[in-house]
Design a protein that fits this description.
GMP Synthetase, Chain A, domain 3, DNA-binding transcription factor activity, elongated, 4-stranded mixed sheet, OB fold (Dihydrolipoamide Acetyltransferase, E2P), N Utilization Substance Protein A, Chain:P, domain 4, elongation factor, 414 residues, 4 domains, alpha/beta
């Protein structure tokens, strides 16, 4: 009975872990053979018959009959008198098969055997889990928030697998509660000891690229190609797209009517501002498009230094630089060129212009800094802007902006 009871308990692993029958039998045989080696010194002369489905197991020890007093190896040989206790008609030289009961291995050996089995099954699970998620690297995955920690969010998928979303892989505006469903890409799988640690990311460029594949049918079908993605997570992103079919407008297809297609992606990324531009192999045109929404007058490229001078009218400079310098930074990353903005404008006006820092006795330094972040560092460059546009692109209140403009206008009126 003890054999059946033990195998029944082993069969629980098959149900819990969904291990296939062949694999379970192989693991069980390996575990039992290790136990036999410890008990008898070798397992070469043992046959193990396991049937997990029926819940039974048999271990047979095979020995050769030798004359009494001539036994040299008790594991592989049996004396004639001992053999005849099993069957009275055995003769020297014949093979004897004798069943070994688990109880003969000893209680401690059985406990160790069970522990060894648990270890082997966990090892098998971890190997399979590692392989499974290695194949998913770069793919979008959804899991549920199980625990929120200061440095990471711990997620659990439908199969109970634990996935880690580190703080630095989260979008700054991300806020999670237990039970929330979270989407990201599987960025990496690391072995910590024998246990795989699955890392998810929501800040990776690959995540945005995969969202385009999921949300835009033409990208999924391969009619539109995502050539490159650059991001400042939670703030701004630029995506270059192309199509080999002249009948398809790749930007229009990705954005959709009134932004209907891209809206879901923007919402998923915490309202990250996404510029979709047409890819081109014409470097000058590519740089011009990358600096959208600014209108570029001309571009002078230095291929050796991988840099470009971009000429813009005064009123376009702040648009090219963008809030916090994000627009020009992403344009440089997208095109692979270091971009230097050159102002074009009325010479008389430029000579008459005044640096904003000259007004530090009337305008707070942090306010001047806010204008500088979007490329506005002179009085005339600020006065040329639309107030509503400045409210949108800076962290300044409308009242503050109007007050600054009043101060600057007074300078020129005087």
């Amino acid at each position: 009975m003890e054999n059946i009871a033990l195998i029944e308990s082993f069969s629980e692993f098959k149900d819990d872990k969904l291990i296939d029958r062949v694999t379970l039998m192989a693991i069980l045989e390996d575990v039992f053979r290790n136990a036999l080696k410890k008990k008898y010194g070798s397992d070469d002369n043992f046959d193990i018959i396991i049937n997990p489905d029926k819940g039974d197991m048999e271990i047979w020890r095979n020995r050769v009959v030798v004359a009494d007093g001539e036994v040299e190896d008790e594991n592989s040989e049996i004396s004639l008198s001992e053999a005849r206790k099993i069957e009275p008609d055995f003769e020297v030289g014949e093979d004897v098969s004798e069943e070994v009961k688990l109880i003969q291995l000893g209680r401690r050996a059985i406990l160790a055997l069970r522990q060894n089995l648990i270890s082997k099954i966990h090892e098998h699970d971890n190997t399979n889990l590692y392989k499974q998620f290695k194949d998913l690297i770069g793919d979008i995955y959804t899991a549920e928030v199980h625990h929120v920690r200061p440095k990471a969010v711990i997620l659990v998928d439908d199969e109970g697998n634990e996935i880690v979303l580190p703080k630095e892989k989260q979008i700054p505006s991300d806020f999670f509660r237990k039970g929330d469903n979270v989407r990201g890409i599987i960025e990496n799988v690391e072995l910590k000891g024998n246990k795989p640690q699955i890392i998810m990311s929501r800040t990776s460029e690959k995540f945005l690229e995969k969202l385009f594949e999921q949300e835009i049918p033409e990208v999924f079908d391969g009619l539109i190609t995502v050539k490159k993605v650059v991001r400042i997570p939670g703030e701004k992103a630029k995506v270059a797209v192309d199509s080999y079919d002249d009948r398809i407008d790749p930007v229009g297809a990705c954005v959709g009517m009134k932004g209907s297609r891209i809206h879901g992606i923007v919402r998923e990324l915490g309202n990250e501002n996404i510029d979709v531009i047409n890819y081109t192999s014409n470097t000058q045109l590519y740089i011009t498009r990358a600096l959208s929404p600014a209108k570029v007058s001309s571009v002078k490229i230095d291929e050796d230094k991988k840099s470009a001078e971009v000429f813009l009218k005064l009123e376009e400079v702040s648009k090219a630089i963008g809030r916090g310098g994000h627009n020009i930074k992403l344009a440089g990353l997208l095109t692979g060129y270091e971009l230097d903005v050159i102002r074009e404008g009325n010479i008389a006006e430029e000579e008459d212009d005044v640096e904003l820092t000259e007004f530090s006795d009337e305008i707070d330094g942090w306010v001047i800094e806010e204008f500088a972040k979007i490329g506005l560092d002179t009085a005339r460059s600020v006065l040329k802007q639309d107030v509503a546009d400045l409210v949108r692109r800076t962290d300044l209140e409308e009242e503050t902006i109007l007050d600054v403009m009043r101060i600057l206008k007074n300078e020129f009126e005087e």
